[in-house]
Amino acid sequence: MGEWTKYYQAVGETPNQQVVRALQKYTGARRAALDLGAGNLRDAKFLLKSGFKSVTAVDKEPQLEQVPGVEFIQRPLENYMPMPNTFDVGISCNTLFFVPRDDTPKILTRSYNALTEGGIFICNLLGSEDSWLTRPEIGAVGYTEEEVRAMLANFSIEDLSYATGHRPTSAGKSAAWAMWRIIIRKE
Q1: Of 162, 171, 150, whose CA–CA distance to 126 is shortest?
Q2: To the nearest whole percent, how much of the chain has pLDDT over 70?
Q3: CB-based contacts of 127: which residues, under 8 Å, 6+ apart?
Q4: Which of 42, 72, 129, 179 is most exposed, with minimal Cβ within 10 Å?
Q5: Using an 8 Å Cβ cutoff, are 4 and 26 in contact?
Q6: Above 50 in pLDDT, residue 1?
Q7: pLDDT confidence of 5, banded at 50, 70, 90?
Q8: Which one, of 28, 73, 81, lies nearest residue 51 by Cα?
Q9: Which domains are delineated in the chain?
Q10: Given the DSSP bridges, would you call strands 174-185 and 115-127 parallel, antiparallel or unpaired?
Q11: Which residues contact 49 (CB under 8 A, 6 or more apart)?
């Protein structure tokens, strides 16, 4: 059983809680949403249930499930070019830390440009203290506060927070985690 299969079994259909909390406060339009790194479509399904008319879901892995209202695009995030001014909300949770470091600012800029006026982009990045960074086979990228602030310097930051702790992995082992939670708004 692959790592992602274990992870999807562990999280099931439960949407990312950062997305849930952000949408509870979001009062803008709910026409189209973008889910970068859509995985098992749990967040795409939540976006539809939250009133979005359509969701574009992008992931490099093939999708096994067809979901009405979700347009799935199989492509690495660093190669996806969304149309400007298209999405009211964009998300990329638990994904950007798996793309090459040089591509993350480009993906953030493309995602921001793809937002409609007043739209938000919800994402997270690993902090420099995360235990995944000690495992080269994972290939994860972590960021210091200085690096995160530099990446976000040209955006309107609605929320930026940092959290650390210990949680069990999908394999049941305890691991230290460190996460930047980010929401930027297009004005």
Answers
A1: 162
A2: 93
A3: 142, 143, 144, 162, 164, 178, 179, 180
A4: 129
A5: no
A6: no
A7: low
A8: 28
A9: 3-124+144-162 (3.40.50.150)
A10: antiparallel
A11: none
Paired tokens of 182:
């980010």
Helix 17-25 crosses helix 42-49 at what angle (to 10 degrees)? 20
What local confidence, expressed as pLDDT, does residue 9 receive? Answer: 57
Residues in the chain: 187
Q: What is the pLDDT of residues 100-119, one digit of tens each?
A: 999 999 999 999 999 999 99
3-state secondary structure at position 40: coil
Q: How do strand 115-127 and strand 32-36 relate by DSSP bridges?
A: unpaired
Quote the radius of gyration of the chain (alpha carbons, Å): 16
- Exposure b/e, 138-177, CB count within 10 A at least 16 = b: eebbbbeeebbeebbeebeeeeeeeeeeeeeeeeeeeeeb
- Which amino acid is residue 108, in one-letter code? L
H-run or E-run covering 127: strand 115-127
Tokens of 8: 């999807």
Residue 6 reports pLDDT greater than 70: no
